[in-house]
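Sample intake sheet
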Amino acid sequence: MGHLMQTGTPVIEANGARIPLVGLGTFELTGESCARLVEQAIALGYRHIDTAQMYGNEREVGDGVRASKRRNEVTVVTKVQPGNLAPPALERSVKESLARLRLDVIDILLIHWPNKAVPLAETIGAMCKMKREGYTRHIGVSNFNAVLLAEAHALTTEPLVCNQFEAHPFLDVSRAIRATRSYGMAVTAYSPIARGDAPDDAVLARIGAAHGKTAAQVSLRWLVQQQIVVIPRTRRIERLAENLAVFDFQLTDGEMAEISALTKTNRRIVDWQYSPKWD
């Protein structure tokens, strides 16, 4: 399923979209340092940058993408926050996102979190309209369980290309992965190194040592080897290269199984009022 882009970053193809398997998450990155980090990531070979209305950094992310002089090679993802899911608010907020990013088009636009207060049919209809009118190339969802995915799939008139949710070796999301893939959608994992918990894990560290890699790189490799897109966030320039260096080694079937066994701990990091009933 993975195909090499010219830059050497493998991509996954899903319902017409080509999504680089490693991207930069920008949650909690702000100001000039955010713009610099985005520009640096692209210089190092990142071709996928993830932001959201809720992060309050679309302007800085856009600055970094433009400064890289590689806009046309980079997949920029942003997400509509749950308070903006009624059609008038969604349309207005997407236009505002594009104005803040100062880009020609959003590459992938996601519903960030479901909102029970707004009928999904209305939100999906507005998302499809944004795609038809050229504000975004592709649309998708984030934090959707199997029930919501089925509903979204039945309602949409445009292909849904991905479902972004928390995934790392300490959380069993196998049902969400199966449901997402059943519609030909890509899985994107946020918090793929469990917000920094992965480096403390003895199993990941031991497997990493066998490959000359860090525990965090093993965590990322376990996901990308399953053709799951990862968007690790870092504030540190030196970590950017480390997080990208996961395509020059392969985990054995035994190592993959050993890491998969860790998911039994079911340690979910992100959970709040907009969370669906998790699968």
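Comment: Residues 1-7 have pLDDT under 50 and may be disordered. The longest strand covers residues 136-142.
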